[in-house]
Batch of 4 targets.
Target 1
Amino acid sequence: MRETLVLNASFEPLSTVSLRRAVVLVMQEKAVVEQAHPGLRIRAAAIDVPVPQVIRLCRYIKVPFRRQAPWSRRGVLVRDRHRCAYCGRRATTVDHVVPRSRGGGDTWLNTVASCAEDNHRKADRTPEQAGMRLLSKPFEPTPADALLLAVGVRHRESSTASGRGYSLPEWLALPA
């Protein structure tokens, strides 16, 4: 399902919503389309709306400051780009580096995306005990990182201060 970026009235990114929710917000005149998919439209008997990629709310929403992105299974899969941390194949599950039975929790630094085979093979052990190596170290995304990853921004290696760089989608990149 397509994700649509939601901007506050002040053009600050807030979240992503489903295409259906974005269209409802536009139809209720609670948001306006800032960027649409080229050539795609939603048509019905009484409506003709461009398919939104980015919408902006008409009224400003005050959002409390968030230091950390909330942990979720979906967030871990998106952070790791649905790639298994052990073999690199398509990941469908989340694995705890330190198993929950041994005190490991649902945290960004203790969970990685994993394919079902590697998750089963690792079982209730640490990667060292199972003789498995992590291909990439788990990291805790900032709320901004999590939002960029959610809208499909690709991670790329760079020499930025944080060691993480992002390649913006064509529709989100600023003109030079």
Target 2
Amino acid sequence: MKILSWFFIIAALIGLVGVRVFEDRLFYDPFLDYFHEASKNMNFPSFQWGKLIIGHFFRFFLNLFFSCVVIHYLFKKKQWTVQGGFLILIIFLITFPIYLYCISSEFEIGYLFSFYMRRFVIQPLILLLIIPMFYYRQKIEQDQRKG
């Protein structure tokens, strides 16, 4: 059973990488080139709000799915998978409106601030915090059972 778990974890990680690698083909995001250029002097791109929001939601749900697969097969606790997914959702619900505000103000709030808000919206960075948190939680539970 352990081999099957590792297969799903690796497949989910490949899925997360695939979302990143094929982002320009999978999602509508005119800000990809804008932020890849890393130039504050580049013209603000024109875009369509509806397509942009739908593209970000689609990307979020793909990242959420693959992240939950990683959490589930690492810890094999349904409750933790739900909690991890909920934490990812909360971070998205906080950062997405802030990022949309940054776009509506054409990044007047700050180029770097907007850049990092975008990172939290389009990439599963919170997974890098959830996994160590759940490992620590697992260790605490094991220590409590022993002692």
Target 3
Amino acid sequence: MTHPDFELYDNAGRDADQIAAARYGIATRADLLRWARRDATPFLAEHQLPDGPLPGPDPAPYIAALAAAETPAEAHAVTSRLLDAAEPALRAVSDYLVAAAHWRGQYHAAAKGSPPKLLREAASRSLSVLVIADHADLESLRAQYDPAPAPKAPASGPAMPAPGQAPRRGPSH
């Protein structure tokens, strides 16, 4: 039989979350999720929600087409189609997260870093994926079709001083 004092410090079989929770006297993530699942069971019985992933584009054709692309224009065509296909799902997730942030009027009085503010930030970031990917795609096209001009060659004539240096004077008479 194990000594009762030792049981408090026996971490065998516990994960890091359980050890930290025991140390600080807080619930683990698994505890919170288990309690919420238990308490939401009657609600979910009344409100039938899909129990699976949201329908989304199958990335296989996009990945295959990207592998076959040989030019930036071809890669852009694939990326553009994928972003167009993914946008409605990402927008739907963003819209839901905004609604969750504003649930029962909690957003406006919420402190920075609170769940409503974090949900609103997540909504924004879910759409920023599209913006960042579109920007990267356009920069790839710019590099192909509109590269930055090459630096101008120095004009013939008197040499210009380097920045921070005084101009050279000719021989003094």
Target 4
Amino acid sequence: MMSTTSKLLKKLYCVLGEKSEGNTVSEFLDYLFGDEELAKELVFQGERREGVVGELQTRIKKGGKSVEGIKIIKNAEGKNVFILDNSNLSYVSDVTVKFLIEATKIKLEFFKKKTSSN
């Protein structure tokens, strides 16, 4: 079973893929609470578990394989912003490998189009 922090990281990659200028922490939290399934995991005894995003920030700042391709920068207002680091070739390679593994698990098949020779 995937941890909440891992689910947030996965969601962060998706969000940043759609929004190249990045997301502030508060924008990301708003997005997360808009997701019904994740929102359930982000509330404990009626309180928002915003510290989970803090854990994610710490993980990103420390670096490592699990967070390759994401950086945190300060914007003009001094707020932390999550951004994708698209120049990281190993990140692209790892994501591709993970996708292919997942595609294989669901038995996704690739068909080569037959061409006729004349």
